[in-house]
Structure formats: structure tokens, C-alpha cells
Specification:
3 strands, alpha+beta, elongated, 4 helices, 16% strand, three-stranded mixed beta sheet, 95 residues
């Protein structure tokens, strides 16, 4: 459920808002004069949102690239190639 509080609660009830964002991992929306003003969330929730956004961006990029070519690789081909590159790096070939 969306949590909406007046911005004055940030000053007057900081501990309560802090507890709320940490316990629920959900943001609290703060209003000023009845209008949305800002959002408060825990660092963990913020970092998770950033990570999810990055993943979405990478998946979208992969989807666009897949649409521009008919070349497809199997799981086995991808991981074999990665293992070969890692082995070369470990052995100092710097491929």
C-alpha cells in the first residue's frame, strides 16, 4: 500500500518514517500543501531500484540487437567461449 505523509512528518516524525521505509522496503511519498513534493526510501531499496533499472536497460539493448540480426548462440556456445577467454586470461594470453 502506498504510504503518503505530509513533508512536516519528515521533521516531526523522522524516526517513524525511517523505520517505515526500512521495514517495508517501500518508499514514502511526502506532500507539501497537498501536492507531491518528494520521495524517501532506504538506501537498500534505492540500490535495488537502480540495479533493476540497469538490468532492464541491458535487456532492452539486447532485445534491440537481437532484432537486428538472425545470429543466435546456444547456452553451450556462450559459456564455452567465456571459459576459453577466462582460461586465456589466466594463462596470460590477454585475448
Amino acid at each position: 500500500m502506498t504510504k503518503i505523509r505530509p513533508v512536516s512528518d519528515l521533521r516531526n516524525n523522522f524516526a517513524d518514517i525511517s523505520r517505515l521505509v526500512h521495514e517495508t522496503s517501500e518508499p514514502v511519498f511526502l506532500t507539501k500543501n497537498g501536492y507531491g513534493d518528494m520521495v524517501v526510501m532506504s538506501i537498500e531499496a534505492y540500490e535495488r531500484k537502480q540495479f533493476e533499472s540497469e538490468i532492464f536497460s541491458k535487456l532492452k539493448e539486447a532485445e534491440l540487437e537481437a532484432g537486428s540480426t538472425d545470429v543466435r548462440y546456444s547456452h553451450k556456445e556462450v559459456f564455452s567461449g567465456l571459459r576459453l577467454k577466462l582460461t586465456d586470461r589466466i594463462n596470460g594470453d590477454n585475448v
